[in-house]
């Protein structure tokens, strides 16, 4: 996965393309249509549509800009609709709250990105998600992926961009040079750490400036414990009958080990800087997912890195790859430009264009039309999955993940104790239950 700077308007794309002819099959529009004709680009007064998108992946802006420009050209050629796109790309730390505020105030973007596992249930219940079940892209989704964007009543309500197989990243060259293999228990991880330190290699890159990064330890720890020792944890929390005190050791034992053996000034280092540090070999491991592959390889195209499951205890059965679908695109039911919004979603899984787009982003294949070769780090994770060493991402409310991110930042800085963090998480989940029951 899941897995955004202040809500900043990043781009108005393809404004220079705003000229031309009309289209009669316009569906919903923004009221700017003049006289129209057919869908074949024949003469008439052009309809202009401004499409608002909210996608909290600013590190991929260049790729989105290009793909959206291609879509604008295609929409003009196919339907004679002049499309201007306003693309807003906040950071992960702010995106969720910004989007919720927009939706609640009837200022919804036409297309917006949400986390499939964490956010679809509550957003669907609130009526914020268009039913996309009959869209062409839905029939292309892989059987292993489609459930992640399908509601309990069987409706497809988003298009998955990122499916994730993750744990932590490690520098394969450093590991090979020092005769190391990914550890299967916490004790083995401690031995790896000591061997690296003895060779004057910093074991971990730390990057906690953005709160969503330290929170990554939470789904890894909870998922591992749910699969091995406490299968009812999420259900208990949803009924106000559980507590994160049951997860305390799984969360903090490995988090403390990482913090005690990592790079300096973690709260001053964000994701992009962390990627650059990892790419430069300033740490052998990074608590991060392969969604940063494109950024890492921009800094060092020759870096050989892999994905491994993070040990959270001395039970090797609890050392598991997390399987998830995170960033997914949804359409607002209140969109005045729904036809064009749906056209864009279908273009994201276009039979011809989609492969190059997903490959450039270094995302996993999500559809039957995706035929590009998997990346080495994806193959690493897949090998663990085939051995049964994986777990589905636990359904932890986004509000709880937001709280743990801030809590672990404060814990790292010495401002909160472990018990303080646990209490804050329990409170956040109970607050979520009150709103969503």
Automatic annotation (TrEMBL):
Keyword Signal on entry: yes
Pfam families: SBP_bac_1
Coiled-coil stretches: none
Keywords for the protein's UniProt record, in alphabetical order: Signal
Membrane-spanning intervals of the chain: none
KW Cell membrane (keyword) present: no
InterPro entries hit by this protein: Bact_solute-bd_prot1 (IPR050490), SBP (IPR006059)
Signal peptide feature range: 1-19
Name this polypeptide is given: ABC transporter substrate-binding protein
């Amino acid at each position: 996965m899941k897995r955004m700077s202040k809500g900043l308007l990043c781009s108005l794309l393809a404004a220079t393309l705003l000229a031309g002819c009309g289209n009669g099959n316009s569906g919903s529009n923004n009221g700017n249509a003049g006289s129209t004709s057919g869908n074949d680009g024949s003469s008439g007064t052009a309809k202009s549509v401004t499409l608002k998108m909210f996608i909290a992946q600013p590190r991929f802006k260049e790729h989105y800009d290009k793909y959206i420009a291609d879509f604008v050209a295609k929409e003009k050629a196919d339907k004679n609709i002049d499309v201007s796109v306003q693309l807003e790309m906040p950071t992960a730390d702010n995106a969720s709250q910004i989007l919720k505020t927009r939706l609640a105030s009837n200022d919804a973007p036409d297309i917006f990105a949400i986390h499939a596992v964490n956010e679809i249930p509550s957003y669907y219940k609130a009526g914020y998600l268009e039913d996309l079940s009959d869209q062409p892209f839905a029939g292309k989704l892989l059987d292993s992926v489609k459930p992640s964007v399908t509601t309990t009543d069987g409706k497809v309500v988003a298009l998955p961009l990122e499916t994730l197989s993750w744990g932590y990243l490690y520098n394969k060259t450093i590991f090979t040079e020092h005769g190391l293999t990914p550890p299967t228990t916490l004790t083995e991880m401690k031995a790896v750490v000591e061997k690296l330190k003895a060779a004057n290699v910093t074991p971990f890159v730390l990057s906690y400036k953005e709160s969503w990064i330290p929170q990554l330890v939470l789904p890894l720890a909870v998922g591992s414990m749910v699969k091995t020792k406490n299968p009812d944890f999420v259900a208990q929390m949803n009924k106000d009958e559980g507590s994160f005190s049951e997860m305390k050791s799984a969360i903090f034992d490995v988090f403390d080990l990482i913090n005690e053996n990592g790079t300096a000034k973690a709260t001053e280092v964000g994701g992009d800087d962390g990627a650059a540090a990892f790419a430069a070999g300033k740490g052998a491991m990074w608590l991060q997912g392969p969604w940063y592959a494109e950024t890492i390889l921009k800094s060092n195209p020759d870096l050989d890195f892999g994905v491994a499951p993070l040990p959270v205890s001395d039970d090797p059965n609890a050392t598991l790859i997390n399987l998830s679908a995170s960033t997914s695109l949804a359409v607002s039911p209140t969109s005045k430009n729904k036809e064009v919004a749906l056209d864009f979603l279908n273009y994201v899984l276009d039979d011809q264009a989609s492969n190059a787009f997903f490959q450039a982003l270094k995302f996993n294949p999500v559809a039957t039309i995706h035929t590009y070769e998997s990346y080495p780090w994806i193959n690493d994770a897949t090998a663990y999955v085939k051995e049964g060493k994986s777990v589905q991402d636990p359904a932890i409310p986004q509000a709880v993940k937001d709280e743990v991110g801030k809590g672990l930042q404060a814990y790292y800085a010495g401002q909160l104790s472990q018990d303080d963090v646990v209490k804050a998480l329990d409170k956040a989940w109970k607050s979520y239950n009150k709103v969503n029951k």
